[in-house]
Design brief:
- The chain is mainly α and 607 residues long.
- The protein contains 21 helices and 12 strands.
- A two-stranded antiparallel sheet has the order 1-4. A two-stranded parallel ribbon has the order 2-12.
- Helix 7 packs antiparallel against helix 8.
- The chain starts with 6 loop residues before the first helix and ends with a strand.
């Protein structure tokens, strides 16, 4: 297990919070005070405290509408992306599931509040660090860290809301009365902060050894390059993104999926990670959201979408088609409901089943249609036939997703199976009973959906428990940067350079290289790699809108859509997703508009 401690962040951050609470060093209406920056020790704690807002305090919940929700909103962006369907009991993602987008919705308010809370704390540090009596080297490094963090938060705000108010100085709450600046002006402020970071001789090229996880000059080049990408300033984006490797960062050279294990996280791929530790307060609860009940008793709220699974290429780089699978040639001729016949478990006709099990089968057959069942069901090889749909595919598919009838060794909890690994469990349909070795893999609900293996642990010695996941989360990693560089190359006409980057990533994933094609073909190759490589990492929602492909990918070009079963049927859900042209960027929160009448309300949103 991962046992190192993030002492610089953890203990110092708690010290900062307790100092502020105990000493009451600022007036109630004052967002920040310079009194925390009067000596080097307090400055160290203050800087560590700037990272505290990234962490959740209550890890027992994954809901998205609790008033005490805190930390980075990881699950919300998972659910908004093309790759993932996020199911949160009676708290769906209302940005998707409401036909009218609501500016009072929890996440719309939360993202705004979370970012500006952090920005005001950062502004305080920038204004007051000079009081701490630091050496010039340390002062400049800390100042650059703070400016990088401010740039990161404003870039996040700009990606979510478009233009937002710019506050670059220490102010009180009653002074937060600005209207939105344009998105271009916000990006200009981001770039200005990063200019200062890059030009500072005391800002390190990387933090792969000393100060691991803190920002660096390489991270600043990466983030400034990303700003240029969003502005469509491709030559400048390429120039910045090219410099990241010169700062010491580069590709993880091992097997793709191994990068997401905590034993391998401190590699040169990690440019700006959110550090997690198994200690309470600085760990993650991702295991609770992914996997299933049979994997650390997870809730499987974040699940791979059926469309994402279908998106994975064949191993030779060709497009996957269900009709190319032997025995499934009639796939397109059948309705989604009828296609269920291909996913049924073996032995329904010949097996020894209880009356209750037979009743379950009868229910499925009636839904499919007896004539379709009799025509297509293979009593002794139905499972083997459907497994062929997931074989001979991009190897990353089975790294990322648990597919039907794939044997999987997994661990649930100490009281289950004598605390031993359950061997060879399979997602079978219909689900009958868990069992142990060779049993039915138990998801918990919506059994006919896929589950994630990426970021999920399945051995008893991997974790302390499901609420203490120690795997660092890359807010910026080199593959992200490299693919943005490839995209920039496409736009400036360097198609061979784009192909070289794409092929380096494909080789690592076990896929054949692509040939240099047209600009459109190269752009599609970049998009494929970003969608596959970066799933669950918080990028796709913004990528798809930036590319103009969100409706196509998330909604399949429909206005009303939703999560689907393996056989592409909407089943078991109590809400749809609703597409509207004005759903992105998000509106300024209604509560902020009420407090600050200078904020412009967005048409098409309910206030």
């Amino acid at each position: 297990m991962k046992i190192y401690k993030i002492t610089a962040v953890c203990l110092a951050a708690f010290a900062l919070l307790s100092c502020r609470d105990t000493l009451n060093i600022s007036p109630d209406n004052q967002i920040a005070s310079g009194n925390m920056w009067t000596d080097e020790s307090l400055a160290d704690k203050g800087m560590a405290g700037l990272y505290r807002n990234f962490y959740k305090t209550d890890l027992s919940r994954i809901q998205l509408r609790y008033n005490d929700f805190d930390g980075i909103n990881r699950q919300g962006w998972m659910g908004m992306e093309f790759q993932t369907d996020f199911v949160s009991d009676n708290y769906p993602l209302k940005a998707l599931s409401s036909s009218t987008k609501d500016a009072s919705e929890f996440l719309v308010w939360y993202e705004w509040k979370w970012a500006y809370t952090s920005i005001h704390q950062i502004n305080d540090a920038i204004a007051n660090l000079h009081k701490a009596g630091l050496s010039i080297e340390k002062y400049e490094r800390y100042l650059c860290e703070a400016k990088f963090l401010r740039a990161w938060f404003y870039s996040r705000l700009c990606k979510i809301y478009g233009g937002v108010p710019l506050y670059l100085e220490v102010i009180s709450e009653d002074q937060c009365t600005k209207s939105q600046s344009s998105a271009e002006d916000v990006w200009a402020a981001v770039i200005s902060d990063l200019d200062d970071c890059i030009s500072c001789k005391n800002f390190p090229d990387n933090t792969l050894t000393a100060n691991y996880g803190r920002p660096s000059k390489g991270a600043a080049y990466a983030l400034r390059g990303m700003a240029y990408v969003f502005l469509g300033r491709w030559p400048e984006a390429a120039a910045d993104l090219e410099k990241v490797s010169g700062c010491g960062y580069g590709f993880w050279e091992g097997r793709y999926i191994d990068f997401f294990h905590y034993n391998n996280e401190k590699s040169r791929e990690m440019i700006f990670p959110l550090q997690f530790n198994e200690e309470a307060g600085f760990c993650d609860n991702l295991q609770l959201m992914i996997g299933g009940r049979d994997t650390w008793n997870g809730w499987s709220n974040a699940r791979p979408s059926s469309d994402f699974v279908d998106y994975f290429q064949m191993a030779d780089g060709s497009v996957f088609k269900w009709t190319d699978v032997p025995g499934l040639e009639d796939w397109d001729r059948l309705s989604p409901s009828q296609r269920e016949v291909f996913f049924l478990r073996n032995g329904i006709k010949s097996g020894s089943w209880s009356n209750q099990q037979k009743s379950t089968f009868d229910e499925r057959i009636a839904k499919i249609g007896k004539d379709i069942f009799d025509r297509y069901y293979l009593d002794s090889s139905n499972e083997e036939r459907i497994r062929k749909a997931y074989e001979g595919r991009d190897p990353r598919l089975k790294d990322i997703v648990l597919t039907p009838y794939e044997p999987y060794d997994t661990f649930k909890e100490a009281s289950d199976n004598g605390g031993k690994i359950q061997k060879g469990k399979k997602l079978r349909w219909p689900f009958l009973e868990e069992g142990n070795d060779d049993g039915d893999y138990y998801i918990g609900s919506l059994q006919s959906m896929y589950i994630y293996k990426k970021y999920s642990y399945n051995r008893p010695d991997d974790l302390v428990d499901r609420l203490r996941c120690p795997t660092d989360w890359p807010l910026i990693r080199y593959t992200d940067v490299a693919l943005l560089l490839a995209e920039s190359y496409v736009h400036i006409g360097n198609l061979s350079g784009a192909a070289d980057i794409v092929n380096a990533i494909r080789r690592r994933g076990g896929m054949p290289p692509i040939s240099v094609g047209s600009a459109d073909e190269m752009m599609e190759a970049v998009r494929y790699e970003r969608r596959v490589e970066l799933c669950l990492e918080g990028h796709d929602y913004f990528d798809e809108w930036r590319w103009g492909t969100y409706r196509q990918m998330k909604f399949r070009d429909m206005d009303i859509y939703g999560g689907q079963s393996w056989w592409k049927e909407y089943e078991g859900y109590n809400y749809n997703w609703y597409f509207t042209e004005d759903m992105y960027p998000w509106a300024a929160p209604s509560s902020e508009c009420q407090r600050n009448p200078n904020l412009v309300r967005k048409a098409g949103w309910a206030y």
